[in-house]
Amino acid sequence: MKLSRTLALLVLLVSVYWSYKALMPSYHPDVEAPSQSFSTDRALAHVKNLSLEPHAVGFPGHTRARNYIIAELKKMGLETSTQEGYTAGDWGNLSKATNVLARIKGTTEGKALLLLSHYDSNPHSSYGASDAASGVATILEGVHAFLAENQTPKNDIIILITDAEELGLNGADLFVNKHPWAKDVGLVLNFEARGSGGPSYMLIETNRGNGTLIKEFTMAHPKYPVANSLAYSIYKMLPNDTDLTVFREDGDIEGFNFAFIDDHFDYHTALDTYERLDKKTLAHQGSYLMPLLNHFSEADLGNLKSLDDYIYFNLPFFNLVSYPFDWIWPMFGLALLAFVILLALGFKKKKLQPKAILKGFLPLLFALVVNGTLGYFCWSIITWWYPGFKDMLHGFTYNGHLYILVYVMMALSVCFWIYHKFRKTSTPNLLVAPIVIWLIICGLVAQYLPGASFFVVPLFGLLAAFMVTLNQEEPNPFLLVFLALPAIFIHAPFIKMFPVGLGLKMMVAATVFTTLLFVLVLPFFGQLKTKDRLAYLFLFLFFVFGISSHINSNFNSKRPKPSSLLYVYNADTDVASWATYDNRLIEWNGQFLGSEKRKPTAKEHETLASKYRTELTQIADAPKKNIALPRIDTVKDTIIGENRVLEIYITPKRDVNRLDVYTNSIPLTDVQVNRIPLTSHFLENRGNRLITHYITNNDFTEIEMQFPKDSVLELSFYEASNDLLTHPDFSVPKRPDTSIPMPFVLNDAILTIKTLRFD
What we know:
The chain is an alpha+beta fold. Helix 11 (328-348) runs antiparallel to helix 15 (427-448). The radius of gyration is 29 Å and the shape is globular.
């Protein structure tokens, strides 16, 4: 029996490994693959050519990337076109977007399938290999393989490579609201990235139910679907919209997102390069595109809308499992009924005692409290010990995967040790508490987060194991491991997904999920006589991975530290300053801030808008340079009724990349920037920011606005250029190879500030 338990434990460990391994295809060099097949190597060649340099809107590499895409589409014999125009979207970020389009004609006049990704990289230092040259490359290689089959599809296939996605989904906004092809689209397949590796998650965008989409997706038979209805429920709560969101909100067009999120530390940085893109991840994107392209090019795309929602999740060997929302409460009721029956059976057989059951709640609650506390304070402890990690605004460090292992090992050690202390309580009595906790969880998610209602599936495995332990003194350990497989395959990937996707500050989700998964496998663990030894083993592994994480905590050329430096000239006060967002300076920017650095006051420098609302941390006096201010002309200033109408032109007098305009707190109506109206939703929720213009070719900014005639308007103009390291009036050296520009903030920039008051 001891040998059986040992072998069953090995099976359990292999199952945990397989729960991750089965998510993605493997990579094998395939440059010689038939042209009718998707080749990861040929797609990688596109990624390499698209990510030779940063190519954000307004940057020199931007035009080169667009021309490369057009040339590749033309090589396939496709007629290409571009769509150009200003748009500000819902974020108040104005830019001139240039979309690239091509169309494969089908045999019918039905709805078209649209393949979507974007070609701009994030300003100002990202090479954009993963985000989203990988998506563009997936589409280019996929279309090439599709066309090589020499078959005419039933539906038209539109290829849309948008621009200015990083600035506010502007290219998608331009297409959906202004291009005649938009009305033809029945379904969108969008390829995105928020890291440089890991599995690609499928997320649905729909205004109604997902029932028909899930059925059609399943019929397409992608080999490695990684998808669950919980992930999309969480996705909808986060401020991480994609181009596909515009299609859903503005065009009522359904679609699928395919995005990978691991190695999040590369996202939007100078590390988002061809060399760091995981080849298996790119192969995973291709494994989605080809079967879906073949299926949806022939499917009825005019009949995808549904009022029914489906629960869905992926399992090894079964691919995507789904069932209607209508089953949620019946399945919960069945689990509850089964529990009540088993309780009655246990009391009848005298296998359960009330006192022992109550005692069985203690180890579970204690483990949840201890492990939850450890996870909750994870990020605070890490950044206290390593302050430089605060400058990794992603919240996920280069050694973040090791930290996940560290905390999971500690959580397992705590669980084994606590349950070892309660070894005299019989396993059936110990199992009541986990079943009650999981019933509560399943009831709560059924009510408030129905997308997570598949949590009840592993609970049925636990209930079956509970029945076995009530009827057998020494159950077969392999049977108990088998009954725990749904829990392992469903929940184990979540332990990694939450801190990877949401940052190490969400380590609490990993430690709590580890505890909850542990008790789902408790019927088997309860048989083990060496829980104390396993506790020591996992404690030992905690120290091993902890030491490894410390060894890999330093910054170097492979793990460079993000850093920032700005030169700021405030024309209102005639003061120049060096400024940084860094919590811990490096020698490169420390030489400019010097020993006289200080924390800025609230009025000294307002922070420009950024994803994580990062504020300037330190400033120091700087020598004044002859930096040209923008020319600001008032071309209209009149009273119409109760409103004052003001129109101004802002013309750069130097090469710039960005203009931010802020106002004082007065109501504004009917605002237009370069003849583009700002949405009422944005104006109602804008705070003090009026507009951010990402400038191409040093273009002007024209603002026309209305406000109450008795109000006093103040406009502050923040004009920035990302040329601090190359400007001839400065002598800022190149960053050392142990540092990269900090993402998500204005960086390596010369910023001027000027305020005008309109009484």
